[in-house]
Amino acid sequence: MLDSALELLRLQSAGEVSAVEIAQKALDAIEASQPRHHSFTFVDREGALRVAKSVDQRRAAGEDLGPLAGVPVAVKDVLCTQDMPTTCSSEMLRDFRPPYDATVVERLRRADAVIVGKTNMDEFAMGASTETSAFGITRNPWDTDRTPGGSSGGAAAAVAAGTVPLSLGTDTGGSIRQPSAFCGVTGLKPTYGRVSRYGLVAFASSLDQVGPIAWSADECALLLYTIAGFEPRDSTSLDQPVPDYAAATKSKDLRGLKIGLLRESLDAEGISHSVRAAVRDAIKVLADLGAEIIDVELPHREYWVPTYYVIAPSEASSNLSRYDGAHYGHRASEGVTDLLSMYCRSRAEGFGDEVKRRIMVGTYALSEGYADEYYNKALKVRRLIRGDYDAAFSQVDLLLGPVTPTPAFKLGEKVDDPIQMYLCDLFTVGANLAGVPAISLPGGFDEQGLPVGIQLQGPPLEEGRLLFVASAFQSATDHHTRRPTP
Amino acid sequence: MSKLSTTTIIGLEVHVQLKTESKLFCGCSTQFGRPPNTQVCPVCLGLPGALPVINEAAVELAVRAGLAINCSIPPMTKWDRKQYFYPDLPKGYQISQFDLPICADGFLEITDPADPDATRRIGIIRAHLEEDAGKSLHDEASGRGDSRIDLNRCGTPLLEIVSEPDLRTAEEALAYLTKLKETMTHLGVSDCEMQEGSLRVDANVNLHIEQDEHVIATPIVEVKNMNSFRSVAGALHFEAERQLAEWQETGQTIKTRGKRTFGWDDVKEVTYPQREKEESADYRYFPCPDLLPIRIPRERVEQLRQSLGETPDEARQRLQSQHGISIYDADVIVSQGPAMVQYFDTAAMTSGDGKRASSWVQQDVMRTLKEQGTDVESFGVAAEQLGELLAKVDAGDLTNDRARDVFKHLAAHDASVDEAIKALGIESVDSSEIESLVAELLQANPKVVEDVKGGNTKAVGALIGQARKRNPNANPQLVREVALRQIEAS
Ligand SMILES: [Zn+2]
């Protein structure tokens, strides 16, 4: 079990441990965990040790080092890495190596982080259990019969299993927050545009965001600070200064802060007792820290999931058109008689069922004669949902509610029931549709010892406020310090 | 059966490649003719994770083009994805503009080919920006291993200009295309090099047939991707005949048959139907989530309008009024492009003789440029030099013939006008010299004196040749004047 990122930084500057020793320890932990959890699709042993060695040498030479020097980081396999495969956990990209790094990966390297490998995920980030990966499922370190969530299941499990202190996930409808909740770690989905999508293999471009996963909010602050900021190669990235998130988490005094409780979501159908209890406990903790809690509503919440499941597949159907076997990726070799059969066979073989399902749904929703009924209508509802958030944030500073209706479910339980799987996103997709930042943090455990998350959502670009409140919450609770038994 | 009266209804979609250094959404060069797949990057290759960023230069050129064809420029324009599968389209969609194009609602005035004194106003529905696809270098149906694709052109900025169905003949279509091409090249928006594919034409065509006081419309055919004006004319003539024959045979009208897509075979000179699949394409347009809408402030549009420069029509009118040349001459000069207009302007102003400058520019300058295979920007005779030379001709210091010698010398050497005159041994001859030369010649040619006195003044011409033999610099006009005066006085 690796120390926290902050502790690793301290130990290195104190000369108590070297980056190579840390990297070795992380690699050993991964090796031990892989057979049980399978969090990684690729481990770059040599690369990690080489970077760690160079960090040690540069430290010895008295050179300035980046803010993540010598800290092992895992990267979700949907982010392009020049020196490692980038598969999106899909047969389609099994052998794909991009010729460039994603902006966030570039920034990790510039911060002297040690990238140890790529983490498993639902194929093309479509799923809520990491069961749609073409390269095998990932198991929840708290209970290996259960899912770690998804789509960033590998990213959250890698942290929970103690193999790395930090990992990068992506969140289109909850794909950072839901696995963070299931794995008892902290995960933040930034404001849309806060972190560049350049080099993030697109699922739904208007919803996708890259964000940090770690045990604590303080560590998320450190990682977010490294990856956030304007990228001229991404037209949707925001040209706004990046605040010092670490400084934002110094104070633990919540007096004067108004937190809106999404009370209605606690009465939602199918929400488990433990989730309700975690939110109730959080109300008390936050109030004790000085926050004022008032009830608020996001009136169009019942339309979140249907709206999301029109917009996301529509964009996906377009984004995934490029995987046609013509230029890169999987190309069918059998049954190909002409161009059309090459396309059809390559895509039939390269994509899994869930990806195909969403491509079909999205293609339908954008088709002539149906676009007004589905896609265009969904865009209109999306505007109403944004309006709800604007109205809520005119009354309160943050929103508090659940992340998921239940703690981690059993592997295989929902994989054949897409509707049940989609309902995992009940409380998370709103932040993506509205483009606002949201954080999932450990809020307690159920009677079986499974972690339960709570969610805070903030106004655009107020990641600092989310991290401040989450850090204060964690200063008063110990849920985030509990570890699964190895 | 009496002959049917038919009208051809034509609308054109013209793709013009914008003259930018780099592609529409990435930094790759747009240079033509480079080795295949050498001008590509993750963005134009459509690699996973790569994102487009708009090239502002293309937006400005599109606005300039729009203003030149009298379009309005809406304050907001956006990007949409047009989706279809093809190997030369690596993303599986083309970034284009669907419902909010950058230019809307314009027109172009053309001279009516049937009446050179009349003009026709051809409506322009819209002009929108889009990225070009790559080139497939293979038999598209085979799909086998020897298919080759060059993506150099992929992502090159295009402006698609869509006319109203206002054109009625192939000749009008050509007049429209000529005018459009002239406008785009004149304003520096595009090179419109058809052989390089930087101007491509799709034509929508059908017939209106008058029968029993009713008008019957034949089904619309879109003839795609024509690369020369000759092809356009050929296709339009062919379609007019083919559609009439088809209607007579099948009776199909616009109400009973949807739009079809045809190609044009340059060798066989026929149109032919393309695959049915393309006809029923649903492009599933939707707003491109990777790009923000573009807002073009009013002030910026006005700035661009101010800096637009002269349109060809404006240039033609100005040359006529400012330099006193004919519409025909102005047309020849303007059709050579703005650099030639500027050259002529300078030469005309320096010489003070627009008509003489116009004739020299159209003959000597254009011929020499053609011989040298160069353009007017890098021509050896500067416009000021030509003007200076023509001023000397006007003043009677040089004959046209001698001026032509000087011009040739200037075109071949790096010299000033005076240096050239000196190098050619040309000296101006003063009038006393001419007086004595003429007196000598009259002495030697009494027959000429007699003829002139008898009323045949043309006889003096015989003296001019002799004078030039004795002194090549003698101005023939002057010799003639002096001779007539001396004979009269004798
Ligand atoms: Zn490029």
TrEMBL record, chain A:
What would be one Pfam family of this protein? Amidase
EC number(s) recorded for this UniProt protein: 6.3.5.7
Question: Which GO terms of type biological process are on file?
Answer: translation
Coiled coil spans: none
Class in the EC hierarchy, top level: ligase
List the GO terms this entry assigns under cellular component, sorted alphabetically. Answer: glutamyl-tRNA(Gln) amidotransferase complex
Q: Where is the Amidase domain?
A: 21-467
Q: Which UniProt keywords apply?
A: ATP-binding, Ligase, Nucleotide-binding, Protein biosynthesis, Transferase
Q: Which reaction does it catalyse?
A: L-glutamyl-tRNA(Gln) + L-glutamine + ATP + H2O = L-glutaminyl-tRNA(Gln) + L-glutamate + ADP + phosphate + H(+)
- What domain of life? Bacteria
Q: Which InterPro entries match?
A: Amidase (IPR000120), Amidase_CS (IPR020556), Amidase_dom (IPR023631), AS_sf (IPR036928), GatA (IPR004412)
Give GO MF terms, alphabetically. ATP binding; glutaminyl-tRNA synthase (glutamine-hydrolyzing) activity; transferase activity
This chain's function reads:
Allows the formation of correctly charged Gln-tRNA(Gln) through the transamidation of misacylated Glu-tRNA(Gln) in organisms which lack glutaminyl-tRNA synthetase. The reaction takes place in the presence of glutamine and ATP through an activated gamma-phospho-Glu-tRNA(Gln).
* NCBIfam families with a match to the protein in the record: gatA
Question: What quaternary arrangement does the UniProt entry report?
Answer: Heterotrimer of A, B and C subunits.
Q: Which family does the record assign? A: Belongs to the amidase family. GatA subfamily.
Q: What HAMAP family does UniProt report for this protein, alphabetically? A: GatA (MF_00120)
User: What's the name of the protein?
Assistant: Glutamyl-tRNA(Gln) amidotransferase subunit A
Which species is the source of this protein?
Roseiconus nitratireducens
Mind giving the lineage of the organism this protein is from?
Bacteria, Pseudomonadati, Planctomycetota, Planctomycetia, Pirellulales
Gene field: gatA
TrEMBL record, chain B:
Keyword entries, A-Z: ATP-binding, Ligase, Nucleotide-binding, Protein biosynthesis, Transferase
Give the top-level enzyme category: ligase
Asn/Gln amidotransferase domain mapped to chain residues: 342-487
What the entry lists under Gene3D superfamilies is as follows: 1.10.10.410
Q: What is its EC number?
A: 6.3.5.-
* Pfam families (alphabetical): GatB_N (PF02934), GatB_Yqey (PF02637)
Q: InterPro entries of this UniProt entry?
A: Asn/Gln-tRNA_amidoTrfase_suB/E, Asn/Gln-tRNA_Trfase_suB/E_cat, Asn/Gln_amidotransferase, Asn/Gln_tRNA_amidoTrase-B-like, GatB, GatB_Yqey_C_2, Gln-tRNA_amidoTrfase_suB_CS, Gln_synth/guanido_kin_cat_dom
List, in alphabetical order, the Gene Ontology terms for molecular function in this entry: asparaginyl-tRNA synthase (glutamine-hydrolyzing) activity; ATP binding; glutaminyl-tRNA synthase (glutamine-hydrolyzing) activity; transferase activity
Recorded hits in SMART domains, A to Z, give: GatB_Yqey (SM00845)
Which Gene Ontology terms describe the biological processes this protein takes part in?
glutaminyl-tRNAGln biosynthesis via transamidation; translation
- Which chemical reaction does it catalyze? L-glutamyl-tRNA(Gln) + L-glutamine + ATP + H2O = L-glutaminyl-tRNA(Gln) + L-glutamate + ADP + phosphate + H(+); L-aspartyl-tRNA(Asn) + L-glutamine + ATP + H2O = L-asparaginyl-tRNA(Asn) + L-glutamate + ADP + phosphate + 2 H(+)
Report quaternary structure and partners.
Heterotrimer of A, B and C subunits.
Belongs to which family?
Belongs to the GatB/GatE family. GatB subfamily.
The job of this chain, per UniProt, is described as: Allows the formation of correctly charged Asn-tRNA(Asn) or Gln-tRNA(Gln) through the transamidation of misacylated Asp-tRNA(Asn) or Glu-tRNA(Gln) in organisms which lack either or both of asparaginyl-tRNA or glutaminyl-tRNA synthetases. The reaction takes place in the presence of glutamine and ATP through an activated phospho-Asp-tRNA(Asn) or phospho-Glu-tRNA(Gln).
Q: Which NCBIfam families match?
A: gatB, PRK05477.1-2, PRK05477.1-4
UniProt-recorded name of the protein: Aspartyl/glutamyl-tRNA(Asn/Gln) amidotransferase subunit B
The organism's lineage is:
Bacteria, Pseudomonadati, Planctomycetota, Planctomycetia, Pirellulales
Q: Which gene encodes it?
A: gatB
